[in-house]
Amino acid sequence: MKSQKRTTIYDIAQKLSIAASSVSRALSNSTKVNAATKALVLKTAAEMNYQQNAMASNLRKGNNPTIGVVVPMINQNFFSNIIAGLEEVTYKKGYNLIICQSNELHAREVDCVNALINQHVSCIIISIAAEMGPHQHLQQVLDHRIRLIQFDRVVDELDTFKVINDNEQASYEAVLHLVAQGYKRIALLEGPQDIDIFRQRKEGYLNALRKSGFPILEELMCENAWTKELGAEATAQLLNSPEPPDAIFASTSDFSALGVLEVATDKGIAVPEALGICGYSNEPFTEITSPSITTIDQYSISMGKTIANLYFQDMEEFDFNVETKVVSIKPKLIVRKSTSRI
Amino acid sequence: MKSQKRTTIYDIAQKLSIAASSVSRALSNSTKVNAATKALVLKTAAEMNYQQNAMASNLRKGNNPTIGVVVPMINQNFFSNIIAGLEEVTYKKGYNLIICQSNELHAREVDCVNALINQHVSCIIISIAAEMGPHQHLQQVLDHRIRLIQFDRVVDELDTFKVINDNEQASYEAVLHLVAQGYKRIALLEGPQDIDIFRQRKEGYLNALRKSGFPILEELMCENAWTKELGAEATAQLLNSPEPPDAIFASTSDFSALGVLEVATDKGIAVPEALGICGYSNEPFTEITSPSITTIDQYSISMGKTIANLYFQDMEEFDFNVETKVVSIKPKLIVRKSTSRI
DNA sequence: CTGAAAGCGCTTACAG
DNA sequence: CTGAAAGCGCTTACAG
């Protein structure tokens, strides 16, 4: 038992005195096999506790029904929802999912991608780490004829499928909502501007100001305020300035918005009456703060499903429309109490 | 380019007019190879964009440095933290992680386990689905000489490594804390009693009542109150009863505790003065409700690391102490405002 | 419908 | 240090 090897197709063949190829055919449910033989093989395989060796099978067949996923952080709501969505679709197709996290580090992202290339996965699905670097590793994926799908944080120059949120439009609508609620001095907490999604969100903010005939004021835009702590710091500065804002759009995340809310509460500033707050991501907690926080839902689970479906569609369709390489999902503004003062 | 095959060890060998075995040795950094040859091979491999085929290598070596993980839900805080912890350790060891989710369904759990056996993973790490069934699939894992580590929700009868929380002790301490705060009628929201962790938590509750000389009252124990909605329902009933409780221990989850808090708030019942509330899991939101919710932290990330280390320790040590097959992690009571009335 | 043979891409004793 | 050969466990043309 201890050093016993797993039973192979040959063990079954030997036991039944037939050829290994027949066993293989019986097991793979081929039509070119006698029904009686097939039944016997199946029965014997079960008795001998046979389980196929997927490595051998995949090697021989030259394909590996496995998709590699590289995300910055597995345990972040957005990404774990993406993974859950992916898994739901790939499971039904009999695909496995290999998960890696870059921890927002470029070097680690490169490592993960290389490991996945070695694994001969059929597809790599990736959201780029915050610490950016050259993207030869992604070009490598393509060179090795592995499909590549980028999502959320993508490298524009690379000609791959991209599934993104329409960050600009979502931000635009969020800011217009603030304007409609009568806020006049709307501040922006920005994320690192070398990351595309944060640039887009800023663009949406600027467009909404222009559209509303509001001035664009440098002093109302705070860089790199993308954690709760940094959001709180930026807020403290904003609120202490001679002309403080009457609304803050924490475009980076709900965590940042939470920082804003805590500082406002500490200072006894009424939300939403004296200060409107809007976050980004629709983290579960935004519903239960007091007041609840207006935010933007990214449909992360369904985004995961969309990504996976894109791969299978691309695999299965003959003339997949190359024009539709970028799928943009429109996020939804969720209006809650933190901005409802009318 | 389009139908080009990936370069193999043979392509390199041919180009350099040496044997494939030498290429293999050079690539695997063997000592039995001339330094000059090795350098040449490495250079050529890079030029030819060579990447090893892990399937072939693993098949030949008869081992697959991959760990399969089966969890009920990937996108639940506890589990995604476990996975993050696992990944941190396995990444450093050069192992891959294949992730599956059972969606709390037994049939799907069986599917996942079988797929992982086929993959010849080295180890399967699992937390059992809520919908329980026979566990032959787990016995199969053992029969196929794959290591099995159970965590959190485990099957007791199976002789495998188990990494669990000391649920009983944690519940015991939580209830003693409620007693110390002067609460006299402490209700329990239970989870399904066929799941071990929920039985253990109930046991801790009962022990604490006995220890405190409190009566055990059936009318204060509510079955299957393990979601926010069910928690809210149970709470409404409890608070409408002739002798309502003055504290509720939502032993199932913080979500359940949140349901309690919402009902209490709706009814205008002061928390913690008139009603104490304690949850379980230390979900991020417990910190930011008003009042913040007392709960129990399960150290999920470090639990993930512990699990992974257990595997590697078992692999590497010669005489691993078989006695230590169950690792019990003591969760920590986090006292917050929802129970602090003294 | 069945069998014998080749081969997926690698690694590793075995000689030299 | 290097090469020729065998084999990991499977699948698939090729004959029959």
Write the layout of secondary structure elements.
Two copies of one chain form a homodimer.
Chain A: H1 9-16, H2 20-27, H3 35-47, H4 54-61, E1 66-71, H5 77-92, E2 96-101, H6 106-118, E3 123-126, H7 136-143, E4 147-151, E5 161-165, H8 167-180, E6 186-189, H9 196-211, E7 221-222, H10 228-240, E8 247-250, H11 254-266, E9 276-278, E10 295-297, H12 300-316, E11 326-329, E12 332-334
Parallel strand pairs in A: 1-2, 1-3, 3-4, 4-5, 5-11, 6-7, 6-8, 8-9
Antiparallel strand pairs in A: 10-12
Helix pairs in contact in A: 1-2, 2-3, 5-12, 6-7, 8-9, 10-11
Chain A binds a DNA duplex (16 and 16 nucleotides) through helix 2 and helix 4.
What do these coordinates show?
The structure is a homodimer of 342-residue chains. The first copy, chain A, has 342 residues and is of the alpha/beta class. Chain A has 3 domains: 9-52, Orthogonal Bundle (434 Repressor (Amino-terminal Domain)), CATH 1.10.260.40; 62-165 and 300-329, Response regulator (Rossmann fold, 3-Layer(aba) Sandwich); 167-298 and 333-339, Rossmann fold. Chain A is 43% helix and 14% strand. Chain A has helices spanning 9-16, 20-27, 35-47, 54-61, 77-92, 106-118, 136-143, 167-180, 196-211, 228-240, 254-266, 300-316; strands at 66-71, 96-101, 123-126, 147-151, 161-165, 186-189, 221-222, 247-250, 276-278, 295-297, 326-329, 332-334. Chain A has a 6-stranded parallel sheet with strand order 2-1-3-4-5-11, sandwiched between helices. The mean pLDDT of chain A is 90. At the A-B interface, helix 4, helix 5, strand 2 and helix 6 of A face helix 4, helix 5, strand 2 and helix 6 of B. Chain A binds a DNA duplex (16 and 16 nucleotides) through helix 2 and helix 4.
